[in-house]
Design brief:
single chain, alpha/beta, six-stranded mixed sheet, 6 helices, 40% helix
């Protein structure tokens, strides 16, 4: 009983720590959105109106952040009871075995993919191992996503525990995956991108949240 209670305490501590990180991330994102709105509005209305707008934004800034697990995301696809066994060197056919493309979990190689931004496609089996550690994987079709959209996509993800890479043949312009969860979208300006990051980035629902996302397999075309 003592060991079980201790494990539960550690798990709760990790969950609490992640909740605080996500809350800070949400606050920073809301602050950035407020600054952008103020800059846009201030160019077209008088000083008194701008001041009133700023006061309104400050008043709403104190609103408590929504719990990550309570964030509802339209079009979210979830995958349950995924295995997490180390396999290889033969590749895993995720589409045939799990009906996932790109993969969002399942058996994978022993080495995880170092998190970062890549200009070249990455091995599914290494990227899935990173998802096991709580990373998110943003994939895009290089034939349909423009350079401007790619810049926006890269700037939208956290600088840790996130992977961005092209995925040739992707049926939609963009797919965003975490362990056991995935959404697709046409544009990086889709509000669901931020919602997905808020809910699944370094999520306690991953099998090994907080495990390293560096120091393992370095894929080709690493940009950042």
């Amino acid at each position: 009983m003592g060991d079980s209670a201790g494990q539960q305490t550690v798990k709760q501590q990790r969950a609490d720590a992640r909740a605080k990180k996500v809350e800070r991330y949400q606050q920073e994102r809301r602050a950035q959105q407020r600054r952008r709105k103020i800059a846009i509005v201030s160019g077209s209305i008088g000083g008194a109106a701008v001041l009133a707008l700023i006061v309104t934004f400050i008043a709403t800034a104190a609103e408590p952040a929504q719990r990550p697990q309570d964030i509802a995301i339209e079009g979210l696809q979830e995958f349950t009871n995924l295995p997490a066994t180390h396999v290889g060197p033969a590749p895993v056919d995720y589409e045939a075995e799990y009906d996932m493309k790109p993969p969002a979990g399942g058996n994978h190689f022993q080495a995880w993919l170092n998190c970062g931004i890549y200009s070249e496609p990455q091995p599914n089996e290494n990227a899935v191992h990173s998802l096991e550690h709580g990373a998110i994987w943003v994939t895009y079709n290089p034939d349909t996503v423009t350079d401007e959209q790619l810049d926006e996509l890269r700037s939208a993800v956290p600088d840790q525990y996130a992977i961005v890479s092209p995925f040739p043949g992707l049926e939609t312009p963009i797919a965003v995956s975490a362990w056991g969860a995935q959404i697709t979208m046409d544009s990086p300006s889709d509000a669901r991108l931020g919602q997905f990051i808020d809910r699944y980035w370094k999520s306690a629902s991953a099998p090994e949240p907080g495990a390293s996302c560096s120091g393992a397999y370095e894929g080709a075309g690493r940009v950042v």
